Amino acid sequence: MSSIVTVTTAATVRNLATLANARMAIGLVASDNSDDARLNALLPLASAACENYCQRIFAQETVSELFRDSTPTRLAEPPIYATHVALARWPVTQIVSVTLDGTALAASDYELDGMGGFLYRLSSDARTYWRGRKLVVNYVAGYRLPDQSTRTLPQEIESACLEVLKALHGGLGRDPALRSESVEGVGSASYADAVTQAALPPMAAQLLQPYRRIEI
């Protein structure tokens, strides 16, 4: 089934790294706030680049996901699907409600693999097939970010964000079209491409690889 995701409670901040760690990433001590204005502007950009690369939002949000059957309505019986549906957001920390064809299911009617975001249909405590035309799942998914108490965001994601931030910070005030420069008797320099969704710094891309959403 295809799905439509609606955010019902959005994250207020989606920065994937702390300001203190951003300071240290560019060579300042954690208490040096001399460059905070620029860092506060760059942190959301670096975080968004990581989200875009992974095709997912990492911050914890509450969402409603609608799965709808796409087969012709003339069929008398609802189609049979796999034993699980893959939720668009993960990790899932709470299932608020599950409604199948207008009927609210009890907690004993389904089983959650929170880390993978898989919701299984149960019957008599055994996995069975989802069958229906309209499934609505309300749930909470995502990580608690580094600035929040009891953070759950993996360290690799924050490190990747800091790698992107360093690349953005290093490019400030530089001509983005400049690829190489040579001054006789002084030296030469060349610059990598600007950070984009498709071209993160290699270390950032490597750190984020296990967290990318793969469309099938």
Structural class: alpha+beta
- The portion of residues forming beta strands comes to 25-35%
Number of strands: 11
Terminal residue distance: 13 Å
Note the run of SSEs as H and E: EHHEEEEEEEEHEEH
Sheet with the most strands?
5 strands, antiparallel
Instruction: Count up the helices.
Output: 4
Mean pLDDT: 86
Radius of gyration: 22 Å
Estimate the global geometry from the Cα principal axes.
elongated
Q: Please give the order of strands in the largest beta sheet.
A: 1-2-9-4-5
Helix content: 10-25%
Number of domains: 2
User: Which ranges are low-confidence, i.e. pLDDT below 50, for 5 or more consecutive residues?
Assistant: none
SSE arrangement:
Blueprint: E1 2-9, H1 19-25, H2 36-54, E2 61-68, E3 84-86, E4 92-100, E5 103-104, E6 110-113, E7 118-123, E8 126-128, E9 134-141, H3 155-170, E10 180-183, E11 187-190, H4 202-208
Antiparallel strand pairs: 1-2, 2-9, 3-7, 4-5, 4-9, 6-7, 7-8, 10-11
Quick overview:
This protein has 216 residues and is an alpha+beta fold. 23% of the residues lie in helices and 27% in strands.
